[in-house]
Amino acid sequence: MDVGMVGLGKMGGNMTVRLVRGGHRVVGFARTPSVVQAVVDQGAVGASSLEDLVRQLSPPRVVWLMIPSSDPVDQTLAQLRPLLAPGDLVVDGGNSYYKDTLRRAAQVTGWGFRYVDVGTSGGIWGLAEGYSMMVGGDDADVARIRPLLEALAPGPQQGWGHMGPVGSGHFVKMVHNGIEYGLMQAYAEGFAVLQAKDEFHLDLHQIAEVWRYGSVIRSWLLELTEDALKENPTLRGVSPWVVDSGEGRWTVAEAIDLNIPAPVITLALQQRLRSREADPFTEKLLAMMRNKFGGHAVKPEP
User: Fold this and answer.
1) How many CB atoms sit inside 10 A of residue 155's CB?
2) Which amino acids are annotated catalytic?
């Protein structure tokens, strides 16, 4: 099966290679020629532009986008509009906000094209392990790209599923990433408590290794944590600055809209925001309030 892959960053490039290994013909395009060459070296066909990519695909075409959410998706769709023909199918495999996906699907189908959203998880490990994919779209559209999904997944019947109508794939992926925030926060807090217990001289890497087998809290995330602690047990040189890419915020906002309490995910998001404060005003003001009502000393800045 032919597919055009737009966006060949680490994840998109690995997906391209996995598709090629699965026997599919992939035409890849990225703005950086060296990135295109990297997938060409792995068996893909390179394209110098979107026009070139579309020209090399036999209709009805499948164009799979692996690009950052928000404006880049809208800009790419606008560029594709005059290049595609009725019946061509666009797949958004990035982490788009599901409400944007609903808007885009209505727009793209109005142009005469088809639209499928694929929430994709697996990161840089997907090339070896396969990707978890949450798919939203019409039955016929999903069936059309089923060979691609089976090649990308851990197994033909594993790690992917048709969630429902268009938008549902990105919605499920949004909640998936919200859960990820909570899991990461729980692991980080637990290991922080262990690290602070000086009298036991605990080996955090050893603990993570023990927990990986038979423990109720074993997981792939714990395996990655164990790897990190093995490489850098004291986390020397790592800045306590944690980025969020949007999915946690969207999950919290959706929980509020649905009147569903989600305190763990919400607090995990707030901790990420707090991690970026180099000069936290909140705690300074708390110290001053305590000083005013109780006469407690204020610790001066170093």
Assistant:
1) 9
2) 173, 180
